[in-house]
Design brief:
The protein is 60% helix and 10% strand. It has helices at residues 7-14, 20-31, 41-47, 52-61, 67-80, 83-86, 98-119, 122-134, 145-159, 170-178, 196-207, 222-226, 242-265, 267-282; strands spanning 137-142, 164-167, 184-189, 211-217, 229-233. Strands 2-1-3-4-5 form a five-stranded parallel beta sheet, sandwiched between helices. The relative contact order is 0.12.
């Protein structure tokens, strides 16, 4: 299993937000992963039809001070991946046999969780858990499938007696954001990071001094740039809805991590709430 900071996954997820020249470097690397550790900066520039300066800029965009450090990270990422993990996401094609659909959807979802595990910043998770534990109120913002993730989060955090609510339409999000205060936490859920309604609410939340947390695809986006804490997910955007399925699974996983982090840290206090909510629901089973 991938355990930490896989640069190859980050390149894949960042590719569409790169400059055209940087994207040429990224596409060559992703198409020739096993060869990259053996290439000099000049070789990579020639093979990707760019320049030495362009390759160096690409390295810096990906967070590295120089080419050598970048290549070391590439080698480490390759070493941590088995052949199955190097496989790409597989989209669902019209007319696919049901057995193929079952296999591909399952593999895509597993890969989305594994890839998210490899890129999520552990320090950012710790900051988010700390903020949630200190919060007076937690508000989740999401549109469409992301809103469903917020509803799942509300259900979980309500069980441990956290004051929280999810808003899933633009007007109610603006209203909720305008009432946020300094001790509140606002969690914005958006795969693209460019959803207009989410960005509008984020701007208001930040102005009000709330702690803003983004759950979004590892990418250059306005949401990732402006949120105070960023929890990155890794997922494909495919032509049929399997892409949205993968992002939803990854986001739900991040919510589970946050909930478990808070519940574990406060277990002596929240266990009574977990017991109460479990018992009241168990009484409804026939």
């Amino acid at each position: 299993m991938i355990t930490n900071d896989n640069i190859l996954i980050k390149i894949r997820d960042m590719k569409d937000s790169l400059t055209p020249v940087e994207r040429m470097v990224a596409e060559y690397i992703l198409g020739n992963m096993d060869d990259i550790p053996h290439l000099s900066i000049k070789n990579l520039a020639q093979l990707s039809k760019t320049s030495d300066a362009s390759v160096l800029r690409f390295c810096k965009t990906m967070g590295y001070s120089g080419y050598r450090n970048f290549i070391v990270s590439i080698s480490a990422s390759l070493g941590s991946m088995d052949e199955e993990q190097k496989d790409q996401y597989t989209d669902i094609q019209p007319g696919d046999d049901l057995s193929i659909i079952i296999s591909n959807i399952s593999r895509n979802n597993i890969k989305s969780i594994d890839d998210t595990h490899s890129i999520i910043d552990r320090n950012e998770v710790a900051r988010a858990v700390k903020a949630l534990r200190r919060s007076h109120r937690i508000v989740f913002f999401g549109i469409g499938a992301s809103g469903l993730v917020g509803m799942d989060a509300e259900q979980k955090f309500t069980r441990i007696n956290k004051m929280c609510h999810t808003y899933t339409d633009g007007h109610s999000q603006l209203t909720a954001a305008s009432l946020l205060e300094k001790n509140d936490v606002a969690i914005f859920i958006s795969n693209s990071g460019d959803t207009v309604e989410i960005l509008d609410a984020l701007e208001i939340a930040n102005k009000n001094g709330a702690c803003s947390i983004a759950i979004t695809k590892y990418n250059k986006s306005e949401l990732a740039d402006k949120a105070k804490i960023v929890l990155s997910i890794s997922t494909p955007e495919l032509t049929i809805r399997s892409g949205a399925m993968g992002s939803r699974i990854a986001m739900l996983t991040v919510i589970d991590i946050l909930f478990a982090g808070v519940a574990s840290a406060e277990y002596q206090n929240v266990k009574k709430y977990l017991r109460k909510t479990h018992n009241i629901l168990a009484s409804k089973h026939r």
